[in-house]
C-alpha cells in the first residue's frame, strides 16, 4: 500500500507539473510551473528505438517547448534501463525506400532542433545510450548519467559511417583527438569512462537526482538574458548548423545509397539477429 508520505509528495508534484495539451504519443512533455522547465520523456517501449514516429513526436515536442518559451528543456526516458537504443535497425533493414528517406530526414530535423535549440538543454541519461541515443544526449548542453550505463557512438561497429552531426556533437564535447578516436573506434564508454573523458558532466544515483541536477544546470541561467544567451549559443554552434545545411541533401542521399547496398543489408541482418539471439539464449 502507498504510504501517506509518498502520496502527499505525489500530490505536491502534481500541483506544480502540467502535461502539455498537445503532448504526443511517443514523447510525454511535462512542464514544471514553478521552474518553467519542460521535461521530454522518450516513451517508445521497450528501448526507445528511434523510428519515424518517435523522431516525429520528438521534433514536435522540442519545437512546442521552444515556442512556449519554457525556461529550459530536459530530455529523459521512460525506460529505467535504456535512454535510447539509437535508430530502429528495423527501419534500415530491408527498408521501404520512402520510409527510409523519411527516417533520415526526421533524424536530421531532430538534430537541427535540439542542437540549435534556443533554450538551455540537458539530458538526464537514465539508461544505456548507444549510437542515436548518444547523439540525442550530446546535442544537449549538459549531461547527467546513471551508474552502470553505456554510452557512445558505435555506428562504425555496425559498418555504418557516422554522419557529420555525430562529429559536430563529439567535437563540441570532447577534445578533438579523443573525439576522433572514439568515432573511428566506435567506442562505447561505461559511466566512469564517460565522466572521465568529459562525455558526460556528472553522475547521479537515480533518475530523480539526474533530473534535479539538470534543473540546477538550467537554473544557472536564471539571471541571464534569454536572447543574449541563445545568440551566444548560436555563435558557438552556428558554423556547424550551416555546414550541416550545406551537406544535408548529400548526406540523405549517401544514407539511402549506403543502406541499399547488399553487403550493408547482410550486415544489418546479422547484427539484428545477434541482438535477438541474445534474448533467446
Ligand atoms: C559519406 C557520408 C555518409 C553519411 C551517411 C551514411 C550513413 C550511414 C548510416 C549511419 C547511421 C548513423 C546514425 C545512427 C545510427 C544508429 O543509431 S544505429 C543503432 C545502433 N544501436 C545499437 O547498436 C544498439 C543495440 N542495442 C543494444 O545494445 C541493447 O539492445 C541495449 C540498447 C543496450 C538494451 O539492452 P537490453 O535492455 O538488454 O535490451 P535487449 O534485450 O538487447 O533489446 C530488446 C529488444 O530490442 C531489440 N533492439 C535493440 N536495439 C535495437 C535497435 N537499435 N533497433 C531495433 N531493435 C533493437 C532487441 O533485438 C530486442 O528485441 P527482441 O529480442 O525481439 O525483444
**Given the structure, what is the number of helices?**
10
Could you say which small molecules are bound to this protein? ligand LEDWP2DD
Largest sheet: 7 strands, mixed
Question: Which structural category fits the helices and strands?
Answer: alpha/beta
Helical fraction equals: 40-55%
Judging from the principal axes of the Cα atoms, what is the shape?
Answer: globular
Query: For the CA atoms, what is the radius of gyration?
Result: 19 Å
Mean pLDDT: 92
Low-confidence stretches: 1-15
Short synopsis of the structure:
By secondary structure, the protein is α/β, with parallel strands linked by helices. The chain has helices at residues 4-16, 52-67, 97-115, 132-139, 164-173, 176-185, 191-197, 207-219, 226-260, 262-280; strands at 17-19, 27-32, 37-42, 72-77, 121-125, 129-130, 142-145, 150-152, 188-190, 202-203.
Describe the structure.
- This protein has 281 residues and is α/β, with parallel strands linked by helices.
- The two termini are 37 Å apart.
- The protein has helices at 4-16, 52-67, 97-115, 132-139, 164-173, 176-185, 191-197, 207-219, 226-260, 262-280, and strands spanning 17-19, 27-32, 37-42, 72-77, 121-125, 129-130, 142-145, 150-152, 188-190, 202-203.
- The strands form 2 sheets. The chain has a 7-stranded mixed beta sheet with strand order 1-2-3-4-5-7-10, with helices on both faces. A 3-stranded mixed beta sheet has the order 6-8-9.
- 53% of the residues lie in helices and 14% in strands.
- The model is unreliable at 1-15 (pLDDT under 50).
- The protein contains 10 helices and 10 strands.
- α3 packs parallel to α4 and α5 (164-173) crosses α6 (176-185).
- β2 (27-32) and β3 form a beta hairpin.
- The chain has one domain (13-280): 2-enoyl-CoA Hydratase, Chain A, domain 1.
- The chain binds ligand LEDWP2DD.
- Ligand LEDWP2DD binds next to α9 and α10.
- Ligand LEDWP2DD is lined by residues 46-47, 49, 81-82, 85-90, 128, 130-132, 154-155, 158, 160-163, 251, 254-255, 258, 275-276, 278-279.
- It holds the Pfam family ECH_1.
- InterPro entries: ClpP/crotonase-like_dom_sf, Enoyl-CoA_hydra/iso.
- This is Enoyl-CoA delta isomerase 1, mitochondrial-like.
